[in-house]
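Archive entry. Fields below.
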Amino acid sequence: MSRLPLEGIRIADFSWAWAGPYATLLLAFMGAEVIKIETSKRPDHTRLRALSTGPGATDPDLSPIFNDLNLNKMAITLDLAHPKALVLVKKMISISDVVIENFRPGVMGRLGLAYDVLRQIRPDIVMLSSSSLGAEGAESKYAGYAPIFAAHGGLAYLTGYPEARPVPLMGSSDLRSAATSAFAILTALYHRAQTGEGQHIDLSSVETISVLIGDAILDYIMNSRVPIRKGNRDEIMAPHNCYPCKGKDKWVSIAIATEDEWQSFCAALGNPPWAREEKFCDAYRRWQNQEELDRLIGEWTSNYTHYEVMEMLQQVGVAAIPSFDGTELFQNPHLKERGFATEVTHPKIGRRVVLAPPWKFSDTPARVSQRGPLLGEHNEYIYGDLLGIPEAEITQMEEEGVFY
Amino acid sequence: MARGYVIKRKEQTSKTALAGVKVLEYAQLAAGPYCTKLLADLGAEVIKIEPPRVGDEARRREPFLNDIPHPERSGFFFYLNTNKLSITLNINTTTGRKIFKELVKECDILVEDNPPRAMKDLSLDYASLQIINPRLIMTSITPFGQYGPYRDYKAYHLNTYHGSGVAKILASILPEETPMPTKGPGFLGEYDGGLNASTATMAALYTRLFTGRGQHIDISKQESLIATERVEIDMFGNNERGSTVWLQYMAGGLQRCKDGYVMITLGGKHHWDGLIKLLGNPDWAQDEKYEEEINTYLHAQEINKHIAEWMINQTKEEVYHRAQALNCPAGMVTTVEDLVASEQLKARGFFADVEHPELGKFKCPTASYRFSKTPMRLDHPAPLLGEHNEEILIKRLGYTPEELAQMRGAGII
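PREDICTED_STRUCTURE:
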């Protein structure tokens, strides 16, 4: 088997919910050994909390969302509040390369696990702390979840239609924050490999969202303009929208950037008389009259399925792609050929389809190798085999509730 | 063209994580340039190859200073190209390709966003370039990736966004009056593709330290976007209904205030208690039936009606701070004006002072991470078109000023 990109990297993962675990999921896809530290008192959010699983979850090993965000990882239980836990954690840190956590700023310190402590144990440790608003500033202790990141980061205000309310997106804001964390950790690991130096990274989830609208922010800074949401519309291109197709709630997206594309588009439509009218004669007029243009195009697209429109227009070099729903993605021949999803078997959940890693490496391919761990599944291996704690001690600590 | 303009370069005061890493960028607009911007801001040297005369398409995208379109006055281009060097090169010419290959030979990473067929036709695909530089990491960012039935399909941001399914997923929480699926704002999905590519590129760079080998990374913008809703999309693969369907049954959520909106998301009982305190312990909230609401989601509609009645008389900033003080997770729905005014962002140093010969002095967003040892830098502005032709072609590659003049005349640079 070929090498994985992060072979040999061990991560002590104190994170929970979505924003932390998705970061280590990405790194686990790349071959990092991720050890997830949970406590039975307060297992990962996504195991039981209604916020992720919906109401009524009682078995921490039955959550599909937990599984999907924690593939390829190991999991141990440890009561961090127990006096004996700290020694174990420190032992683990001493053989780890990365520590990640997404508690509120200050919590790791209270647990005796601040970066300054950890680097005494392991000088070249890379530690990433992910929080809503970062570790500094008056609002640093404020709490947040994905929809709050989207709202407070400025994305929600710009999403949706101008005449309707803003749209706070969904879980994607957590995953965007997590993807940023994964990138930051990799950069720090590269620096460490070059220099032997570890460091602490303080990441703000809200800011991971704000950097994605840098151009809108600069519009305000440069021109005092406050941009608002504009649906599918573009600043320059028209047509640039979704158009109704045959079937219930089926849409195709069409975008035209050049005069050549416009001519090809008109030809594909059979050169209807309206396309020759002066109000659609150039890009500027089309943009000005796009509402009427959209209506006319919609009349044409509604005669076909979204796949048919895509094929007809792509054939002549016009950008047209259906607005796929979740189910259609899994039936899509292109995505299937690229192996965008795979399957794992979980002892309690059964067979489960999960998305594959979002990159294709030619030499060191990332992969899904293992289902998500059960609560405390790897206690024996980590405490016994990896940390080398004698069996008698483990039994005693178990009785004392250290591993609860 | 403002050729020969010399920007005074500040001395880099601290070390950077990617010092010594050489990146070549042959990409336009947002995805590729954002990928290399992330690397440049952390210390990599990025040489950006732009088409002669017109440059990167982003130069023709707003916002423009004072709304006057000008290739050196696009805030969009500026933001995506900080800390980079720019050369112009027409790779459709033999000489252009020769220079391209000379640059490939010297670099660690090539990031490009051209149609797979175009690179192959020019013999600039990975198989060809790898022969020149076996340590080359080549990251290709395209709408649908390097293989598969859609690989040659044309798609702009609107199309990849919709083609990834995330627009339809978002549609499940759109207001009833606007049911048509909508794309994410601006170039959101392009940024996602760029970030996803930078992560893979860093992994390849890291692993090259041990293998000594480069590799080709195939990034599909469609799959990068799918990944941003991984949890939700997995549900569809297993014939389950979406998870965030629960959002609409949850107390709190998006709430309208006197001067805008706030977002409230409750994760546990203590958050619920905080919310009720925020509302001033109203009588309706004392009803026993709400005690388990945080786990049952049975009464969100009536609760949200109560919240809405109270909220409409409040300002978003007040609600935000008071809710948080009471341990109720809340955020404002911020406008870009709110972001620029944010004390928290100021305290974090989110905005840096930058200076550019055409744009003047202004504040620019930096990054979401603070590295304790290798901070990100914003010490060089985005380059002018072809600003570094002389530096790269004469000083590095050894062409003479005369040759450069000839190449300029021939439309090669």
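CURATOR_NOTE: The two ends of chain B are 13 Å apart (CA to CA).
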